[in-house]
Amino acid sequence: MLGLIWIAPLLYAAWTAFHPAAYETRFDLLAPLSLENFPLAWKQAPFARYFLNTVILVTSILSVQLVVGTLAAFAFARLRFAGRNLLFGLVLVQMMVMPDILLVENYRTMRMLGLVDTIAAIGLPYMASGFGIFLLRQTFMTIPRELDEAARLEGVSLLGLIWRVYVPLAKPTYLAFGLVSVSAHWNDFIWPLIVTNSVSSRPLTVGLSIFAAPDSGVQWSVINAATLMTSAPLLIGFLLFQRQFVQSFMRAGIK
What we know:
The protein is an all-alpha fold and 255 residues long. It has 13 helices and no strands.
């Protein structure tokens, strides 16, 4: 029952997107199918630019998160240094702080850096992920130390050890975190809405909200077609990698 309630809006969006506007509130099994809503939505708003902005945004955030998360997770899992537990505790605290609490301070920082209304301003506050560091640390701790010793005997450097041993063995975890990160920032709305003002920097979520504003006069069938276009990449990605997504969390010790 809960599943039906959750999927009902998606089913309605699919119905209206693939049928003429006359069937927005009429559910007739014999209603003719139509694809005209998708080109209409694509033409009425710069969705090509919104898609490009969003892809650049989620790709840049994920790339930096993976580099920072890998190095930090390896340090917390394998290296011994003063204050390690305290620093890792601060990383865990980051996971408990809602991003919305920092909206004002983040905006002040972006304005001070002269980055307001840029894609960099959207992604910069999220370049280091406490969740990513925690997830990778849990995975790295399950890797036998004997592999470290064998690699060091072969003359592999510390960075080489991470790249040749730890990264390949943690691929399922990287895939799962990648899906989580891309999904979260693909769907993020409040922060991009605050820090962007122009088409050149707006992501899909903000562009779609403006497109679907009540005073825009756009039909629901066209709005839902645009909604399906924006959410389709995430749905396809999750359906393709859902098995690896679940298995990675089990391997990382999160039940």
